[in-house]
Design a protein that fits this description.
This protein is mainly alpha-helical. About 55% of the residues lie in helices and about 5% in strands. Strands 1-2 form a two-stranded antiparallel ribbon. It comes from Nannospalax galili.
Length: about 110
């Protein structure tokens, strides 16, 4: 399954483009722009599993840095600051990574 099976490719293109400049990434706006906020909990979990590149059941800090590439291959990497901000927002239990439930909560709060 690919991300475009779940989200509109044009919405993804616009959202990735909106945050093309370094240190502009806003996960709340991004999740809204790609249409993730409107998806069912089941579809949000499917997106999580696509973004969990190593299939560990978690999105670790290095995967978070590449989160935009999970939506569009030609997207940029997040800056270290953006990655830390996203991790701090999503890592509810403080284990240094984001699990499926934490990702669902992060999307729901956006």
């Amino acid at each position: 399954m690919s991300i475009t099976d779940l989200l509109n490719s044009e919405d993804i293109r616009k959202a990735v483009g909106a945050f093309a400049a370094a240190d502009t990434f806003d996960y709340k706006k991004f999740f809204q722009m790609v249409g993730l906020k409107k998806k069912s909990p089941d579809d949000v979990k499917k997106v999580f599993h696509i973004l969990d590149k190593d299939k560990s059941g978690f999105i670790e800090e290095d995967e978070l840095g590449s989160i935009l590439k999970g939506f569009a291959a030609d997207a940029r990497e997040l800056t270290a600051k953006e990655t830390k901000t996203l991790l701090a927002a999503g890592d509810k239990d403080g284990d240094g990574k984001i699990g499926a439930e934490e990702f669902s909560t992060l999307v729901a709060e956006s």
